[in-house]
Specification:
The complex is a heterodimer. By secondary structure, chain A is an all-alpha fold. Chain A has ten helices and no strands. Chain A has one domain: Orthogonal Bundle (MetI-like fold). Helix content of chain A is about 85%, strand content about 0%. Chain A starts with a helix and ends in an 8-residue tail after the last helix. Chain B has a domain of about 160 residues: 3-Layer(aba) Sandwich (Rossmann fold), CATH 3.40.50. The chains are: A mainly alpha, B alpha/beta.
Amino acid sequence: MIYTRGIIVTLSLLLIWQLLVGILQLPIFILPGPLLVLKTLILQAPLIASQAWITILETLLGLFLATLFGCTLALTMAFFQPLRLWLLPILIISQALPTFAIAPLLVIWFGYGMASKIATTLLMLFFPIASSFFDGLKRTEHAWLDLAQTMNASRWNILWQIRVPAALPSLASGLRVATAAAPIGAIIGEWVGSSSGLGFLMLNANARMEIDLMFAVLLVIVVFGISLYFSVDKLLRRVIWWQAEKN
Amino acid sequence: MFPKRPLEPELASTSVGKVQMTLSTAPAISIQNAHLRYGEQVLFDDLTCHLPAGKTTCLLGPSGVGKSSLLRLIAGLGVTSGNRTAKEKIQIDQHDPSLIAYMAQTDLLMPWLSVLDNVLLGYRLRKESSPETRAHELLNQVGLGNAIKKYPAQLSGGMRQRVALVRTLMEERPVVLMDEPFSALDTITRLKLQKLAAELLANRTVLLITHDPLEALRLGHQILIMSGQPAKLEKLELSGTPPRSLTDEKLLRWQGELMERLT
């Protein structure tokens, strides 16, 4: 049902768009119609594809590294209580830093290639993952911990056997937020300074007034973002299947 | 996704009578000078009680009187509640928390573990090798032989509490502390589980908290009534062996008398 509705809404919007362009006789460099965008997408497919895989790779690597660092930080803060007070400011500062503003700096540090884009993505995604996982780890049901204590469990085993699995549903919601934002991180990085990728292609098309190409690239980004989100969501639902259950 | 929750299967067919007690003789527990205070509020002071060896003691009393706190102190668990700081003190003869198993009001099953893994939780947490044969044996005895591979979400409330009971028994501890373990169940399931628990816990030193006078009379060798502020304990000795039959006239008379006394 949700898919049918999505398709109906999308098609209606495209229709209105096409009609507007036809009625108002808008020039191509202001607003190309959806049919022209589709034509450009097909004609320019090899060019777009050659740039797309770079952006996709940056996004996936950034997301993967952000998950790795985010989880490590959350686990460290949960297990080493005194360290938490020292690490929490780092976490908050990392989020308070405006990613847009420091992206040029990252380009200077990490170069024009992929590394600086991965760094931007990492910086953006790291916070939602670390904070949601840490939140979950803090909120383990007290009664579970009491039970584990009467069973003579060590803190280490309580962490891995009870607190981590209990926190995985929270981590999953953080991961969903991060996944939705992941392509944006890579594209910001590419805007600031790059010689390849979809962000680079968009900037170029814009500068050359090839608005139809810009829209085609935008479409690819949206489709990639949505597919990535739903794949990750599906994977999380399968792996963390107990999340819906309330104890 | 999951099949609908099954109805409570009949427990009568299980042979719980044949429980093998591999435990060494259960110790008696003597508590002296138990004291608990939250700020100005004194829950109990200089409280003394004795849990006889291998017998079941039921602790009866109104909500908030400090029953659970007393049990938690005996179990060696913290009693801080919310942001109230507690001042507590307890003196227990030959106290060894590793002799004590604890069963709470909710089943505390881990939703991500199967019934078998939940039952073996203590062994997982201690990284010890799991006595799976024993687990199968006990699960069969409580009528959960077919549910071993299931997950908690697929079980009814009564089945979940039976899993929790088996998990408690798997710890092989001679002292068992239970905090209203059956209160969340419907009457019929509760009555069935009381009988099952009494049979499986025979010969252990048990402290069972309840606010149900009938449950206390049915399961206890003795009853401690906790009331007042600071709370005091009053002891009732009961004759006969639990679990007492529900058709026992004596039980019903006691219930009447106890109700009179409590109200």
